[in-house]
Write a structure and sequence with these properties.
The chain has about 170 residues and is an all-alpha fold. It has 6 helices and no strands. It has a single domain, classed as Ferritin, core subunit, four-helix bundle (Ferritin). The protein binds MU-OXO-diiron. Belongs to the ferritin family. Prokaryotic subfamily.
């Protein structure tokens, strides 16, 4: 059984992950509209990852005998600017999510919920990867700029990303 406080923050994180999913879906659609199908693909995979994160958290609440509360999700923006601006937003958003995950971990420590601490370690590691991925693409964009043929090369590279469903058991 999880504490009321742990349950509340986990449910809020499900909401945050679903917001992330919608944010990336909106960005993906934006890139698609701009004709950058590879960027759109990368962000659509990101949408799938975020949905999977939400479900991992939701299933964990259920597994621990907690009560799932599906909360309202704010609509994301529609316009995201240049590809550099898109990835600046991605990185900033992931840094924000890292703060949320760290906050959850802190609650798990305060509540002396050792099982939740172990569960959340996967998310702590995942955030390192999330930030590194965004930083990597942003770095490339800063080198090649926002227009010209090099963007198309990067678009081609990003078109190869494939969604691999995460699971806590195979990730540790
Ligand atoms: Fe679910 Fe991008 O962190």
């Amino acid at each position: 059984m999880i504490s009321e406080k742990m349950q509340k923050v986990l449910n809020k994180q499900v909401q945050a992950e679903m917001y992330s999913a919608n944010l990336y879906l909106a960005m993906s659609s934006y890139c698609d509209f701009k004709g950058l199908k590879g960027f759109a693909n990368w962000l659509r995979v990101q949408y799938q990852e975020e949905t999977a994160h939400a479900l991992l958290l939701l299933d964990y609440v259920k597994e621990r005998g907690g009560k799932v509360e599906v909360l309202q999700i704010e609509a994301p923006a529609v316009e995201f600017g240049t590809m550099t601006e898109v990835f600046k937003t991605v990185l900033k958003h992931e840094q924000h999510v890292t703060g949320l995950i760290n906050g959850l971990y802190e609650v798990a420590i305060q509540e002396k919920d050792f099982a939740a601490q172990i569960f959340l370690q996967w998310f702590v590691n995942e955030q390192v990867e999330e930030e590194a991925n965004a930083t990597d693409i942003l770095g490339k964009l800063e080198v090649i700029g926002d227009s010209g043929v090099n963007v198309l090369y990067l678009d081609k590279e990003l078109s190869t990303r494939v969604f691999v469903p995460p699971s806590i058991s195979n990730a540790n």
